[in-house]
Amino acid sequence: MYFGFHLPTHGQYGYDEVLEISRAAEELNFDSIWVGDHFYLPKEFYEKTGGDPERPNKLDAWTLLSAIAAQTSRIRLGARVSPLPFYDPGRIAKIVATVDIISRGRVNFGVGAGWFKDEAISFGLWWGKHGERISRMLESLEIILRLWTEDKRITYNGRYYRVVEAPFWPKPVQKPYPPVWFGGSSDKILGVAAKYGSGLLPLSNMPVKDFRALALKVAEKTGCGGRKIVLAPSLTYPDALGENPSTWISRIEEYAEAGAGKIIVDFSMSNVPLNGIICFLKDFSRRVFPKYRHAK
Predict the structure, then answer these.
(1) What phi, psi does 266 have (nearest 5°)?
(2) pTM surpassing 0.90?
(3) Under 8 Å CB-to-CB from 140, ≥6 apart: which residues?
(4) 8, 25, 101, 277: most buried, per Cβ within 10 A?
(5) Mean pLDDT over residues 126-135, rounded?
(6) Is 268 helix (H, G, I), strand (E, B) or coil?
């Protein structure tokens, strides 16, 4: 079992706060840091984290991850998740490859199809039905993976995207490419994850019963001897995870028995001050990690 956490990059959490928490988490041997990739979020996120819904601030995910990469040395870094239809495939491929190089191979490439319609409309980005967004995501990912892995110029003529004799060097550090983690739990997402994914990131606070059903679906999609997909449910602190170690361990055991390989503690919807997060991380690592021999 591995343990990561999702940091807010909005409300009271600016660059200095995120960097301080990231350094502390690495010292405590957490496995991974995740941040959301948005222009801004719905107003309830700011209400819950002590921010101003009328001035919805949000730091850029990959710029921030590159800065964290330069200030840490072991902890893995990822977006939870980057909506590929909002990006040009070549541009996001270059961004993520660069962060993988800066981090010396610590990127988890979290991807999705996008879910917040208002931010797309606000910034003049394309928005369509879920099925079409999934198709765009998949086509974009196919281009990205070819750019990362093929030692030649790439030509691709798709329904939505086109590249012509596109050169792409340097390649990411991780081979064949940074692990791809998919956000969501729809049947279409599961199908794509079974083909390309290293991990799955369901929405926060998925009930254990639903998570168990999801784990069974993933097993059916991958089949015997198929791709191994790590399931990483996330629990908001303190609402879903609980406020004391016995509750933390009980909740973790429930999800572990249902098929979880990683637990992500989600602070993005909680009004926990900087010192509160660091105190929690220290207490959690001291009380929980010893129970799991492979915990980082």
Answers:
(1) -105, 115
(2) yes
(3) 84, 85, 87, 89, 92, 160, 161
(4) 8
(5) 94
(6) coil
Q: How far apart are CA 250 and CA 134, in angstroms?
A: 35
- Radius of gyration for the chain, computed over Cα atoms and rounded to the nearest angstrom: 19
Q: What does the pLDDT average to over 54-67?
A: 98
The fold for domain 2-291 equals: TIM Barrel (3.20.20)
pLDDT at residue 223, rounded to an integer: 80
> What is the DSSP pairing of strand 154-157 with strand 162-166?
antiparallel
Token pair of 206, please? 């998925």
Give 26-51 as a DSSP string: HHTT--EEEE---S---HHHHHHHT-
Token pair for 66: 């590159």
Whole-number Å distance between alpha carbons of 124 and 137: 18
> Could you report how far apart the first and last alpha carbons of the chain are, in Å?
8
Q: Residue 158: which pLDDT band, with cuts at 50, 70 and 90?
A: very high
Residues 6+ apart with CB under 8 A from 48: 269, 270, 271
Report the pLDDT averaged over residues 47-62. Answer: 95
CA–CA separation, 281 and 296 (whole Å): 12
**205: Cβ contacts below 8 Å, ≥ 6 apart:** 234, 235, 236, 239, 240, 266
Which residues lie below 8 Å from residue 31, measured CB to CB, with a gap of 6+? Answer: 2, 3, 4, 75, 76, 262, 295, 296
The Cα-based distances of 79 to 54, 76, 218, 281 in angstroms read: 25, 11, 22, 20
* Closest by CA position to 116, among listed 89, 91, 83: 83
Q: Which of 20, 16, 18 is nearest to 6 (CA)?
A: 18
Are residues 202 and 181 in contact, defined by beta-carbon separation less than 8 angstroms? no
pLDDT score of 295 more than 90: no
pLDDT digits (tens, 9 = 90+) for 187-244: 999 999 999 999 999 999 999 999 999 999 999 998 876 789 999 999 999 999 999 9
Identity at 288, one-letter amino acid code: V
Cβ atoms of 108 and 76 within 8 Å: the answer is yes
Instruction: Kindly state the tokens that stand for 59.
Output: 């730091």
